[in-house]
Specification:
alpha/beta; 3-stranded mixed β-sheet; 6 strands
């Protein structure tokens, strides 16, 4: 039980660190869930209706970060990727969406990002294919 609590606390720290880096302090309290909402919106906007029972959504997401934000999150990148992937899977389950392959969320650095904001790119990548 202690390991579960420790994992939960670590995920909370990663989440807080992410918001600190991605959202300017002035706007942070109003946009705490902006990245998760953006991932959900990406699923909703890019959904493909295959038939009455199957709606296919992107399963590969690349979050482009300014260099400074990416450097600060580098040590927590894998756990944070898993944390965000879980949010995408949960949203898909709630909406009845399907994936073509495993869900992957990756944080990447984009040089020249002067705005200090993030951007999400997504793709539908069948099992065994790479996306991004």
């Amino acid at each position: 039980m202690k390991s579960l609590t420790a994992l939960e606390q670590a995920m909370e720290r990663w989440s807080n660190a992410l918001w600190t880096l991605l959202i300017p302090p002035v706007h942070r309290q109003h946009n705490e869930t902006e990245l998760v909402r953006t991932l959900h919106q990406e699923c909703d906007d890019r959904a493909l209706i295959l038939d009455r029972q199957r709606i296919l959504v992107p399963n590969v997401f690349v979050i482009e970060l300014p260099p400074e934000s990416h450097r600060q999150l580098a040590d927590s990148r894998d756990p944070l990727d898993n944390y965000l992937s879980n949010h995408v899977r949960r949203h898909a389950a709630e909406q009845g969406y399907s994936f073509a392959g495993p869900v992957a969320v990756r944080l990447t650095e984009v040089e020249g990002n002067k705005v200090g904001r993030f951007r999400v790119r997504s793709a539908i990548a069948p099992t065994g294919a790479s996306g991004g």
